[in-house]
Amino acid sequence: MKKHIGIIGLGDMGFSMARNILKAGYQLTGFDLREERLEMLEALGGKRASSPAEVGEVADAVFIMVMTGKQAESIVSGEDGLLKTMNPGKTILLTATIEPHEARSIGKTVAKKGVHLIDAPVSGGQNGAESGTLALMAAADKEVWDENLDLMKAVGENIFHVGEEIGIGQTVKASLQALIGCTFTAIFESLVLGSKAGVSGKVLYEVFSASGVSSPLFKNCAKLIMDRKFKDTGSQIGTMYKDLGITMDLARQNGVPMFTTAAAQQLFQSGISKFPEEDNWTITKVLEEIAGTEVKW
Questions:
Q1: For a surface tag, which of 57, 108, 117, 201 has the fewest beta carbons within 10 Å of its beta carbon?
Q2: pLDDT value for 14
Q3: Fold annotation for 4-164
Q4: Residue 276 — left, alpha, or beta (φ > 0 → left; ψ -120 to 50 → alpha)?
Q5: Are 148 and 118 contacting, i.e. CB atoms less than 8 angstroms apart?
Q6: Tens of pLDDT along 4-55?
Q7: What are the phi and psi torsion angles at 202 (to 5°)?
Q8: Any idea where the domains of the chain sit in the sequence?
Q9: Catalytic site positions
Q10: What is the 3-state secondary structure (H, E, C) of 43-102?
Q11: Which residue numbers in the chain have pLDDT < 50?
């Protein structure tokens, strides 16, 4: 019989992961603060819980997919947290993106209870969560990693064992987000420059797509910009803005200059200040407004 799985946090990412966990044949119990998300889970065939503690009571392994480290800590060790009911030998998979030091703190807390922790932030966005093709940067004792590999494969395609020390997964993710954030802002700026100088979006898209910097990220991003789709595309600007903050905190802690990432963070600051409910590509509109142009096909 397959493990009984839990998931806490049924936002766009968590809900898509829940769907794939059920599709893989696992029993699933989930918790979210929003009633409508619990109803959506039940419609998929999952079971609802009234608290993290209730999830921990029935699940062999529990995914945590929330926004902040403070939320993750409360879910694990709060008054109705997982550790109130989870027995030794069970596993928590921390797939949220939080500060490395927060992951280490959670790791120490769960270890005292004899519960295993896999520090496994993900990359791939909502599209990856929906298709089950996420990349997981998983740090854990190798034996625990091996025991949960099939479960991780239910939500991801590329599962990396990045080390045994808790916090390394979050460190890899923070480094990756620097690259992704800077790539996004370079795309936004280059498209606005070409547009302002009189080049059609179609030409920019075709040439950039045939160049050495072509990637699925560029093609998806550029198409959404030119189609003027800036909301509900699966990449809410608040998430990347939060992640870049984690990256810059890590850089300060380690004495690493991050000139390009700092500039990217400021562009995300401008975007979230003007369009807080929209997606990453909305930064293009800020640049367009300054330059007096519009990127279009």
A1: 108
A2: 97
A3: Rossmann fold (3.40.50)
A4: alpha
A5: yes
A6: 999 999 999 999 999 999 999 999 999 999 999 999 999 999 999 999 999 9
A7: -60, -45
A8: 4-164, 171-291
A9: 173
A10: HHCCEECCCHHHHHHHCCEEEECCCCHHHHHHHHHCCCCHHHCCCCCCEEEECCCCCHHH
A11: none
Query: What CA–CA distance (Å, rounded) separates 56 from 86?
Result: 5
Question: pLDDT per residue over 210-233, tens digit each?
Answer: 999 999 999 999 999 999 999 999
Residue ranges of the alpha helices (H) in the chain? 12-23, 35-44, 52-58, 69-77, 100-112, 125-131, 142-147, 149-153, 168-196, 201-209, 216-226, 237-254, 259-274, 283-291
Report the C-alpha gap between 2 and 169 in whole angstroms. Answer: 26
Nearest to 228 by CA among 294, 276, 273: 294
CB atoms within 10 A of CB 258: 17
Distance CA 263, CA 285 (A): 17
Q: How many angstroms separate the Cα of 197 from the Cα of each of 10, 186, 219, 222?
A: 44, 16, 21, 17
- 4-164 matches 171-291 in fold: no
**CATH T-level topology, domain 171-291:** N-(1-d-carboxylethyl)-l-norvaline Dehydrogenase; domain 2 (1.10.1040)
The secondary element (H helix, E strand) that includes residue 141 is none
